[in-house]
Amino acid sequence: MASVMYALLLCLSAGALSVVQGEDPYLFFTWNVTYGTISPLGVPQQAILINGQFPGPNINSTSNNNIVLNVFNNLDEPFLLTWNGVQQRKNSWQDGTLGTMCPIAPGTNFTYRFQVKDQIGSYMYYPVTAMHRAAGGFGGLRINSRLLIPVPYADPEDEYTVMIGDWYTKSHTALKKILDSGRSMGRPAGVLINGKNAKGDGKDEPLFTMKPGKTYKYRVCNVGLKNSLNFRIQGHPLKLVEMEGSHTVQNTYESLDVHVGQCFSLLVTADKEPKDYYMVASTRFTKTVLTGKGIIRYENGNGPASPELPEAPVGWAWSLNQFRSFRWNLTASAARPNPQGSYHYGKINITRTIKIVNSASRVDGKLRYAVNGVSHVESETPLKLAEYFGVADKVFKYDTIEDEPPATVEDKITLAPNVVNQTFRDFVEIIFENHEKSIQSWHLDGYSFFAVAIEPGRWTPEKRKNYNLLDGVSRHTIQVFPKSWAAVMLTFDNAGMWNVRSEQPERRYLGQQFYVSVLSPARSLRDEYNLPETAQLCGIVKDSPKPPPYSS
């Protein structure tokens, strides 16, 4: 029996080679990143393709799988992918941010090696270099539950990944030049669903097909650049079952606001007249509403989709109320057998409160975005490498920002690498306060946090009485409405260097991000993996001898 269990099993599926041994299974991928020409809005433009695909291939994995992904950069610029929401436990070396890794140089390749440890759910990957995300290079990443772990709904007939996002017809290089010149990149030209927008001329091919009477799971992610999108399907209610790695209480919605960087899993039952229906994604909180459409076709159905699209909600009070309806499913098991609700986050004492205020201002006449008055600047040496090689003092200063924003946060901006020092395993409250007139979307790498409140106005300690301390959803991205605040709580128990960023690439590129350095005092393999042998070195550590590895 043992010899059977430890035998090498090879299976080929979805372009990935799966190797199953005594340890958790391995999935192997080879990706060729190239330029190509696409015309999703009728205008030919340069796109970034992965294995010739736009959007890129789906990664279909299961909890605890090891992913080995060899990326060949055939572009003319450095390139780097991040795995949005994958926690990279003990392994910020593979996080794919410019603060943790050297980008992949043109004409070279790099192999990512990471484990989707103790996670389930719907995620995505995208480029973090330059403005590459505006040209593609993104796709879906799903982590299925292990067969032994019960899922709180019946297996769907099939699962579909839906990448929605606003889109520019300007090239990524043109957009970068605009930002580098100190201007905003303006409004997008349209909205795409899986890289397309149905014309409605009767010639549109369906994005998805459904068998009458069957239920399907749609994994919907907003991979756009600027706008929150409202997602809906003609005549079909949406049952929310999972959000960014957490099973939710299964409420049903006519439509859902999906903010930039967020992912939802929805169950949709094909119980209507068998014909075509439109899947719709439209911009929210914009004067001019842009709409993207895609066809869902019933098998053996007869009849075109109705040109009358379901209406979207108006205003952000509706969106705030929808956020408040999201609840953690306390009885469901996620990646482990124990119920989600067995972790009582509301009973843990807060050891630190960090209040984050985003702002927009000008430095030497050029637009910059900042966090507590500091606009992050990328360093030639990744922050994590500088720290690991003992040369952090030559690259950045810790705690450039304080836990309380300065009174002049909206006026004065300092340009510098922005790194916050955080004690390992402390339980921390982070307040995101938005004084601007536009909605924000914040993401934290390496963790999930509990989204305990979003409210209008300014935050004060008295607002804690309004927190959801029982069943706030554990997730990695949270929106902050105009002139509002959001509160999240988490334990910083994952050693590494972790990016906190605006999910809107313009704001991230122009400085609205920072890093949290979480160092384990034990310097032990129990807390953090060693620098990988294959790690690329750059900047001032390029030719440095590697420090002694952690031994236990």
From TrEMBL:
InterPro entries in the record: Cu-oxidase-like_N, Cu-oxidase_2nd, Cu-oxidase_C, Cu-oxidase_fam, Cupredoxin, CuRO_1_AAO-like, CuRO_2_AO-like
GO MF term set: copper ion binding; oxidoreductase activity
Keyword terms, alphabetized: Glycoprotein, Signal
Signal sequence region: 1-22
Every Plastocyanin-like domain range: 32-146, 158-300, 381-521
Record Pfam families: Cu-oxidase, Cu-oxidase_2, Cu-oxidase_3
Similarity remark: Belongs to the multicopper oxidase family.
Name assigned to this protein: L-ascorbate oxidase-like protein
Organism: Pyrus ussuriensis x Pyrus communis
